[in-house]
Amino acid sequence: MRRFILLAAVLLLAPAAAADVRIKDVTSPVGPRDYQLIGYGLVIGLQGTGDTMRNAPFTEQSASALLDRMGVNVRPNNTMRTRNVAAVMVTASLPPYAGWGTTIDVTVSSMGDATSLMGGTLVLTSLTGLDGAVYAIAQGPIAVSGFAAQGQNETLTHGVATVGRIPNGATIEREPPRPAAGIDGPLILQLRNPDYATAVRVADAVNGFTRQRYKSALARERDDRSVALTLPRGAQATRFLAEIGDLRVAVETPARVVIDERTGTVVIGADVQISPVAVTQGGLTVRISETPEVSQPAPFSNGRTTVTNQTTISAAEPAGQVAMLAGPSLKQLVKGLNEIGLKPTGIISILQAIKSAGTLQADLLIQ
After folding, report:
1. Which helix (H) or strand (E) holds 87?
2. What is the pLDDT of residues 8-18, one digit of tens each?
3. Where exactly are the structural domains of the chain?
4. DSSP string covering 213-259
5. Do residues 342 and 350 make contact, with C-beta atoms less than 8 angstroms apart?
6. What is the pLDDT of residues 60-95, one digit of tens each?
7. Three-state DSSP class for 281?
8. Residue pair 285/300 in contact by the 8 Å Cβ criterion
9. b or e along 88-105 (b: 16 or more beta carbons within 10 Å of the residue's beta carbon)?
């Protein structure tokens, strides 16, 4: 028997006083970016939770090749039946301007039928970039947050036991490629959450600072995603970005509702509004019961005892309640949803129906 637990949550973000945030928290300069690395390796030291060699032949081939390089010849016998080894893919993100000898975190993910990587150690693995060059070397013990326990009739799983991380597990052997236009070229700040009002406020805040410091307006909003900056004469780009990064602006948040149907999570933004609409919600419950009964033949009738099933079907539908929903403010919207007394699944259904009716004045994102 397998048991699953579903946790449902509804997050209704109440409107708070508008808080200013730093420019460097909502923007990033165009050009510098992370460089993605990938590698293939082996995890050893598992307690019988590794790959099955017959089901994952690439694990057996990799282990044999590793032992061959270390002077141990196991190919003629071909009797590897260990469950303490697992083939994994190792991924990492190389920060821009990272220097030789620094360390970064790596993520280790199982490729075969291993059930858990807990307690394992990654063997020396090369991490390559898009150009095929080796940029880092990874090795070390794996930290796994989840676990899996299995018996004959029940399985208990918490988190994902086949994915782990190695903090500071990779050492950089080569610096990442730098962009053609470095940080000393044209400066463009890119907004993490595009919005026209936010872009204008960022430009105004930078101009207010540069008029006092450099006696000139040096920022110009390009679109809802970016703000162009002009580097002051005689100033360095790094110092200039550090100065304007601490400037504070008010950030506009879009009216958006995010729904995750897998977990029953609903997140409603502060600016979400619903035009007046009448809503009713109810459900039809159908229950089917199977009752086994034993049919016993009469004495001396040479009959057989048989088991028959008696099926009972019942249906019930609760009385529907009609409620008025109107959302000039998030507080009133939350109050209306709470008055109906819905569970997260019911709220998800109602929000989808309201969006189809055209009365939800917000973007509806379903994950």
Report:
1. strand 86-94
2. 344 444 444 44
3. 19-31+181-250, 35-172, 257-293+308-366
4. HTSS--EEE-SSSEEEE-PPTT--HHHHHHHHHT-EEEPP---EEEE
5. yes
6. 888 888 888 887 777 656 667 778 889 999 999 888
7. strand
8. no
9. bebebebebebeeeebbe
Paired strand residues for 364: 257
Q: Which of 272, 255, 291 is nearest to 336 (CA)?
A: 272
pLDDT at residue 110 above 70? yes
> What are the structure tokens assigned to 253, written together?
């948040």
Q: What is the dihedral of CA 95, 101, 106, 111, to 10 degrees?
A: 120
Tell me the C-alpha distance between 191 and 203, whole Å: 12
Q: Which H or E run includes 36?
A: strand 35-44
**19-31+181-250 placed in CATH 3.30.70:** yes
- Nearest of 104, 99, 96, 94 to residue 32 by alpha carbon: 96
DSSP string of 145-206, one letter each residue: --EEEE-SS-EEEES-TTEEEEEEEEEE-SPPPPPSS-TTS-EEEEESS--HHHHHHHHHHH
The full 3-state SS of 317-350, as one line of letters, equals: CCCCEEEEECCCCHHHHHHHHHHHCCCHHHHHHH
Quick one: which of 164, 179, 94, 87 has its CA closest to 136? 94
- The answer to whether the CB of 20 falls within 8 A of the CB of 71 is no
Give the count of beta carbons closer than 10 Å to the beta carbon of residue 319. 6
Could you count the other beta carbons within 10 Å of the beta carbon of residue 67?
A: 14
Task: Judge contact between 88 and 122, C-beta under 8 A.
Answer: yes
> How many whole angstroms separate alpha carbon 89 and alpha carbon 138?
11
For the full predicted model, state whether its pTM sits above 0.85.
Answer: no
